[in-house]
Amino acid sequence: MKRSNRTFLFWRCLFYMIGIILLAVGLTLNTKASLGVAPVITLPFVIASILPIDFATATFSVYFIFVCIQLALNRNRPKIKILLQFPFSFFFSLLLRLFSVLLACNISGKAQGLLLLAASIVITAGGIFLMVNMNYIANPADGLAHTIADSLNKNTGTGKNILDCSCVLFACVLIIATGTSRNAIGVGTLISMIGVGRVLALFNRLFQRKMLLLCGIAPEATLCE
Length: 225
What we know:
Blueprint: H1 5-32, H2 42-50, H3 55-73, H4 80-83, H5 85-102, H6 110-134, H7 140-151, H8 156-178, H9 187-214
Helix pairs in contact: 1-5, 1-6, 2-3, 2-8, 3-5, 3-7, 6-9, 7-8
């Protein structure tokens, strides 16, 4: 029996919302592993340690800048999906604030930190996998990575590498200038940079096609590689 459009829409919205939640959980756990945070959140993590604001507010501020950069680089293209990243950023910051309270934990030793880091990588990759494949409103970081890639006529992976390196570079400048948050960048930053991409590729290889069919999306309609 052929599935209806409502069924496709249900699964698509469900996967997208689960993806947002998983991404917020994954990034929150990443900040608590005490081994260095993921590249894309090094900047808000350092800003939160310098200014009297929490990590969620700092992330919203950085995401706001990411959206503005996208608008500047996409002058001649439809901007509605980019503009919708503003309310998305606000909602996502609320989730980060919620999970920072719910997922409070004390790490004792590098072994526990590595386990928490591994969990954060898998959960973050799962969130990105669901969100990007549903092709709704992008996380501003993913949206900017894709915009950078388009502007340079490169693939999305290259755009993400450029964004990650830029975030780490600016974070390093702030750390050197202020002498704060030296634990923002560490071995966990490198592991996250490599690990999220590899786990995401594995999820795509194992589950992407079946999930897209369940949601009524043609495989070529997604930007997730």
